[in-house]
Design a protein that fits this description.
It is found in: Mitochondrion inner membrane. 70% of the residues lie in helices and 0% in strands. By secondary structure, it is an all-alpha fold. The chain is elongated, with a radius of gyration of 40 Å.
Length: 125
């Protein structure tokens, strides 16, 4: 940006009326207006670029996410939906609960057992 005022001009302006006269000069006002318009232009361009980026991101998100039918198919294929798998998980939970109940009822350290399914047979505390 080119300044419309030199040092000698500033000295004369101080003697004749100061800053008020400087702002009244048409070439300075045009520079101020250009500066404001340039800032506004940059802000609008930045907003447009961000808007386009958000639009592209949203579009890609919509393309990548599965539809309702595909979600239902995926849920049906999950291992938890298989009856054999559900029985196996229930049996494992029962064994774990039985082990915890036995550990609470005895002074033996059940963590030292080689086979948790059986009673006794390990180091004791």
């Amino acid at each position: 940006m080119v300044s419309c005022v030199r040092r000698s001009s500033l000295r004369r302006l101080r003697r004749r009326g100061g800053l008020a006269r400087l702002l009244e000069a048409p070439e300075c006002v045009s520079l101020v207006a250009r500066s404001a318009m340039g800032t506004l232009r940059k802000a609008l361009i930045a907003g447009a670029v961000l808007g386009v980026g958000a639009g592209v991101g949203t579009g890609l998100f919509v393309l990548v996410t599965p539809g309702e039918r595909q979600k239902q198919a995926t849920l049906k294929e999950m291992p938890e939906q298989d009856p054999q798998r559900r029985d196996e998980v229930a049996r494992t939970k029962e064994l774990l609960l039985a082990t915890l109940q036995e550990a609470a009822a005895t002074q033996e350290n059940v963590a030292w057992r080689k086979n948790w399914m059986s009673g006794g047979g390990g180091k004791s505390a």
